[in-house]
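Q: Sequence in, structure out?
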Amino acid sequence: QVKLVQSGGGSVQAGGNLTLSCVSPRSYKSMGWFRQGPGTEREGVASIDRNGDIVYADAAKGRFTVSLDKSANTLYLQMNNLTPDDTAMYYCAADPFASAARLITARATSDLIIWGQGTLVTVAS
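A: Exactly. Output:
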């Protein structure tokens, strides 16, 4: 079974920065980051595809930067100026067929998406 291995995350004060990483054993059409806060559904944060197209959720625009190292099949999410509202479990995702625009709208129940194990980000006020 293909696994995406995540690293990074942790606890920071509001205004702090964190970087998440996700290593894939192979390349995919698109990869992205999702998050799920307490009592909420998993939502897309940012996505990128091998054409270089990038899509951000409104909450991430201007603060988060997604990037993909194609040679290493490694996805990154640089998160700046974090707020308590960013507290959530963050998941890496990969899709063999979807564009970045399509991936970011995907549901957690999608049969096509491969998920990372999740990493907790906690932002204290």
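Residues 33 and 92 are 5 Å apart (CA to CA).
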